[in-house]
Amino acid sequence: MGETGSFKTLQYQFASHLRNPAEIPSPQGIEDRRMQIYRDLFYNNVEGFISNGFPVLRSLISDEKWHRMVRDFFSAYRCQSPYFLEISQEFLSYLQTSRQPEPDDYPFMLELAHYEWVELAADTDVDEIPATGFNPEGNLMQGRPLVSPLAYVVSYQYPVHRISVDFIPAEPPAVATFLIVYRDRQDEVRFMEINGVTARLLMLLEENPEFTGADAVRVVADELAHLDKNVVLQGGEEALKHLQLSGIILGTELKPV
Questions:
Q1: More confident position, 53 or 84
Q2: Closest CA to 241 of 145, 105, 118
Q3: Cα 165 to Cα 168: distance, rounded to the nearest angstrom
Q4: How far lies 168's CA from each of 61, 117, 120, 161, in Å?
Q5: Apex 96 CA angle, 156 and 23, nearest 5
């Protein structure tokens, strides 16, 4: 084997040992003290990104279980992205698709992890809130409401935005939790709790690019046929205005000339 082949083999041995030092021996001829520096450096770097990306989840899980989970991710999961900023997304994918559930897992663990990842995604999204291309004074019912590209509508069985070491729900409430996670013009990440009707309005606007605000509200009114239609129409219009006051709806889209 030539020098290139020997070097590649050494690289594979080195990387394999760093990922799983408990089962894979280090390359021969390297002082273990030196290897320990690399073992700590690589693992602590990845673990630090994950802990910072999921601070609430980290606070709820014991040190032993947390490091066992991160070590399994580090040693067994094959990430699809090489970027440090996407480690949190890769860890979420690991939790959702690869990790075997354990009896003492919190029932809301996957939802909480997803919510914390959405917060990070909103914080690091490369999109910007546009300054032009819409009318901030436009009629939201007659025109097409423009939703901020930095707003994420999510729903969960558990109230993930309230979970902490002081609030650990054992069962999901009867009503699902709907949230908008968004980054404002000051680059602050915020969330707004909404109801299912408002979430449905935003979904209709996303799925139907030709809809005006009134179109979306009328569909919701038809779906809630057991309620007074005028009350639903008025409530829908107020919901759109409230979203605009919060900066989630920017105004109405300008029609191309």
A1: 53
A2: 145
A3: 7
A4: 12, 19, 22, 11
A5: 150
The residues spanned by each domain of the chain are 3-105, 127-253
Contact at 8 Å (CB) between 114 and 161? no
Q: Closest Cα partner for 74 from 38, 97, 42, 112? A: 42
pLDDT at 242 over 80: yes
Torsion over CA of 124, 130, 131 and 137, rounded to 10 degrees? -120
Maximum separation of any 2 CA atoms in the chain, in Å: 80
Whether residue 115 contacts residue 160, with contact meaning beta carbons closer than 8 Å, is answered with yes
Q: What proportion of the chain, given as a percentage, has pLDDT over 90?
A: 77
The Cα–Cα gap between 253 and 257 comes to 12
User: Which residue in 250, 150, 155, 147 sits closest to 202, CA to CA?
Assistant: 147
CATH of domain 3-105: 1.10.150
How confident is the model over 139-193, as pLDDT tens digits?
999 999 999 999 999 999 999 999 999 999 999 999 999 999 999 999 999 999 9
pTM, two decimal places: 0.89
Could you identify the residue written with the tokens 């979430």? 199
d(CA 148, CA 145): 10
Structure tokens at 171: 């069962």
Q: Name the DSSP letter for residue 85.
A: G
Q: What is the CATH number of domain 127-253?
A: 3.90.930
